[in-house]
Write a structure and sequence with these properties.
This protein is mostly helical. It has helices at 2-10, 25-32, 48-60, 69-72, 77-86, 94-109, 114-122, 128-136, 140-147, 150-160, 172-184, 191-209; strands at 17-20, 39-42. It folds into 2 domains: 2-122, no CATH class; 139-206, no CATH class. A two-stranded parallel ribbon has the order 1-2. The longest helix has 19 residues, at 191-209.
Length: 216
């Protein structure tokens, strides 16, 4: 129970905390619901392997994104990826089981959400160009609101501290946009230094990812 409380303290914005309603689960659920909002009792169907297989298409389609450990300070990523890839023979199979249960929960309870979107994209029900077209039709204000993510905030903070940005090609459009915002921010005395650092990072990452100057 202490571990669950500690995890909730670290990630207070999590809107659902899934706990299996078996063994000592009911007692833990009853106690936690008095202190923490969003505690949900679940009775997962099938075994761990069956649940992992049910979410395999999301992994195969590249639809599951993990935080960059260098950008977010997520030191647990290496062990997590090892446990996912080595499942079911990994020494700790709870990472895969917790992940598959979360994905199944989102797919079944949040129909039409991001998991369903990725499923439709992976199965060809919608094309990537359709999702880009929908994004292009949003108002500038809506685009600004959507683009302000944890990744972009961490990019601005990292470049302000003089750190190099590490990202993959899939993340780079958002990272590049955040670097441009960092160049334009004039909220403090660090503006000039931050603008120079951000400009240097854009040049370095453009070369690294083969980014065309004509594409924004």
């Amino acid at each position: 129970m202490a571990a669950i409380k500690a995890c909730h303290g670290k990630f207070p914005r999590a809107h659902a905390i899934l706990i299996e309603d078996k063994a000592n689960g009911p007692a833990i659920i009853s106690e936690l619901q008095k202190e923490i909002a969003g505690v949900v009792a679940v009775n997962p169907e099938g075994g761990k392997i069956a649940r992992a297989q049910a979410t395999a298409p999301l992994w195969e389609a590249g639809s599951i994104e993990l935080p960059d450990p260098l950008v977010f300070g997520a030191n647990w990523i290496e062990d997590y990826v090892h446990n996912i890839c080595a499942f079911p023979k990994a020494a700790h199979d709870d990472d895969m089981d917790a992940t598959s249960q979360a994905l199944i929960y989102m797919r079944s309870r949040l129909g039409g959400g991001i998991v369903d979107f990725y499923r439709q994209q992976a199965t060809g029900e919608i094309r990537p160009s359709q999702s880009r077209g929908a994004s292009a039709r949003r108002s500038p204000a809506a685009q600004d609101q959507i683009s302000e993510t944890a990744l972009s905030r961490n990019v601005v903070e990292a470049v302000t501290q003089g750190s190099q940005i590490q990202c993959n090609i899939k993340q780079y459009p958002e990272v590049r946009a955040a670097l441009h915002r960092a160049m334009e921010m004039q909220t403090d005395a660090q503006h000039e230094n931050r603008s120079l650092l951000a400009a240097n990072e854009i040049q370095r990452l453009d070369r690294l990812h083969g980014w065309s100057g004509a594409v924004e």
